[in-house]
Amino acid sequence: MKKKLIRFFRFFLINLIIIVSLSMSISLITPIDSYLQILEDKPLNSQPFLNTTLADEFNSSFAYNNIETQLSFGDRIPGSNGSFDCAKNISSEMQKYGESALYNFSINGFQCNNIISRINPNKSQIVIFASHYDSRAVAEKDPNSSLRSEPIDGANDGGSGVAVMMEMARVIAEAKINWNVSFWFVFFDAEDQGESRGISGINGWDWCEGSEWMVEEMENQPNIYFREGQSLDTIHSFILFDMVGGTNLKFIRESHSNDDLTDEVFKIGNSLGYEVNFPLNGATRTYIDDHVPFAQKGIPTLDLIIEFDNLNCGWPYHHTSGDTIENISEESLEITGRTALQYVYETFDPTLGFIEKFSSKETFFSNPYVIGTGILIIGVGIAIVIKSTFFKKY
Ligand SMILES: [Zn+2]
């Protein structure tokens, strides 16, 4: 009887450990909806300053017109004339608000250019806003198969993020506030040419080539990027805008992004009345995007992006011929721009000095895939040790 009981106990314990570790690792590895988070109320990290709010200065028709300007250069495929003309236009417009330069690099012989524009460039603490400006060379998801090898307009996928950032830069510069941070506006080339459904934008290219290259350069040649007192460690936060101007805007929580920064910006969106667009307990997804190389260096990042791979997300035109100006919503541009400017307004109070960084960082060991696999291995290991140590007599 005693033997039977011990056998049952052994069977039960080992299975329990394996099931618990399996389910913990699966829940971490499965990105979709599996670790939704209910956000707790947390005070914003500083008081608003001055009597005006930056958010009210955001002009959504300027942003909309800016997308039309980008599209007027034609396709912005890396290495093309359209791309170079668009890059020069972005940079010269941004010079009205601060300083701006093209940073060129080449991939497989194609000349590419990131654009970095700075307002208040000498302050040691840095906040980065970013988007990609290249447009995808193929519409591999188009419902009409004859269009799948044609380029997309990229009004939303590319154009919208650039437009919101350029209008934000205008507002930040014209506010003439004695900012205590440097603002960087980074426009990446070569984000959108990787392989999807067996079709590459440009053969042999990966996603996010421009951001990967920039982070590598920042490490290897910091003096090209940083002024005195600046380094990767003084980057306060990095916010990426990707597909922020489509109809029916609804952002998801992206799991490479910093939780605290995500909470903060989503709460600000809610406080402005955009509960539908920044749902506090919406879906969580895992996307490779231009913020990932920065997150991997421990920089708090946020990818403002929609659930583009779900046809029911309200904007079903990802990598199709439907990514046109007709499917852009001026209101979505406004919602994004006002929320981001309110974040600036509430976070970078010039009276506060050095601003505390968001705490949690993504490193190799905090990646959900790595944690999940680790838990599984440890769980199975414990089960094996218990089995062989305590139950070998039976
Ligand atoms: Zn894309």
From TrEMBL:
Domain of life: Archaea
GO biological process: proteolysis
GO molecular function: metalloexopeptidase activity
Domain Peptidase M28: 114-344
Pfam families on file: Peptidase_M28
SUPFAM superfamilies (alphabetical): Zn-dependent exopeptidases (SSF53187)
Keywords, comma-separated and alphabetical: Membrane, Transmembrane, Transmembrane helix
Transcription regulation as UniProt keyword: no
Transmembrane segments: 12-32, 369-390
Listed PANTHER family: METALLOPEPTIDASE M28 FAMILY MEMBER, PEPTIDASE M28 DOMAIN-CONTAINING PROTEIN
Protein name as it appears in the record: M28 family peptidase
Organism: Promethearchaeum syntrophicum
Taxonomic path: Archaea, Promethearchaeati, Promethearchaeota, Promethearchaeia, Promethearchaeales
